Amino acid sequence: MTGGGPKTGGDPTTGAVPSAGGVPSAGGVPSAGAAGSGLLEIKDLRVTYGTGADAVPAVRGVSLSVGSGSKLGIAGESGCGKSTLALALLRLLPATARLTGEILLDGEDVLTMRWGRLRAVRWAGASIVFQGAMHSLNAVHRIGDQIAEPLLLHRRATTPAAARARVAGLLEQVGLPAARADAYPHELSGGQRQRVMIAMALACDPRLIVADEPTTALDVMIQAQILRLIERLVADQGISLLMISHDLAVLADTCDRLAVMYAGRIVEEGPARAVYGAAEHPYGRALSAAFPRIGDPASRRAPRGLPGDPPDPSALPSGCTFHPRCPVALEGCAHEDQELREAAPGHRAACVRVGTAVPTQPSAEPRS
């Protein structure tokens, strides 16, 4: 991430500037944040592309919270708006996007920050692991130089030698030998490149990591290694995690809480095991049923899917946007949208049938 940092101070031995221990204010002083609030608070966030009659809604009134040291997973099909949401959190969307609502990081609204302040927040507040490591890394620069660049740019190291030492430590932290700092991206495997992206995200000691499909295009064994690495780093360093994936089972195995997204809205949220094993929204149940389950031979022979395709954001159905694909839709679902309502303590779903007798799938543990 690009950003600014303290101009003076540092360890005379390593040349490293000490961590702020929080999101720095405009003058470099850590912000105390809002008392009693989460590290990240998203309030009625809306993202549209284009203007006027050509405006296309990508995110429609999302409200979420990520507490310090907690792990939130966001699941949904391709095109549901989850990657747009991730990029919006740090204002990384193109100029054609229009954002409204609030994104409070430690009590400060990212959407109203001036450019200099936003750069500071991006290094001490949050960092992002982009989808597709090969496309995120510069093919003509060694990976050590790419990890060192933000360290020097944001004054986390004041000399090239200090930056190289920090890079070696970061590579070892993510399970790569320090000698791989001299490698080019094409010389690494997919799993190794993903570890490099995680090292880069950790470089400036963020309080929040946003991981957008961090296991995309990796085989199952490498996926498991990357997920365990992320879990270990989050636990050891007390970092908060917002992780995005289409795989509800992976998120349930990694995160504390889950939010299910459909057509730009959150349609269900709650504890990970509850959302995965006993989803209240028909779409949440369909996502969970799409993957084979341990101890369920029938699901391995024919995992259940969902007919139809996600709606076109420029021509959303009336009422509940899921009703054309919903197996338990009622007549009124085509005319009236549903807000999130509590199904159990801490578990909410946007469905008219919440709290009524709706056929559910057998509860199962997330696959490991």
Automatic annotation (TrEMBL):
Pfam families: ABC_tran (PF00005), oligo_HPY (PF08352). It is found in: Cell membrane. One of its GO terms (molecular function) is ATP binding. Residues 1-25, 298-318 are annotated as: Disordered. Keywords: ATP-binding, Cell membrane, Membrane, Nucleotide-binding, Transport. It comes from Streptomyces hebeiensis. InterPro entries: AAA+_ATPase, ABC_Ni/Peptide_Import, ABC_transporter-like_ATP-bd, ABC_transporter-like_CS, Oligopep_ABC_C, P-loop_NTPase. PROSITE patterns: ABC_TRANSPORTER_1, ABC_TRANSPORTER_2. Residues 40-288 form the ABC transporter domain. Belongs to the ABC transporter superfamily. It is a peripheral membrane protein. Residues 9-25 have a biased composition (Low complexity). This is ABC transporter ATP-binding protein.
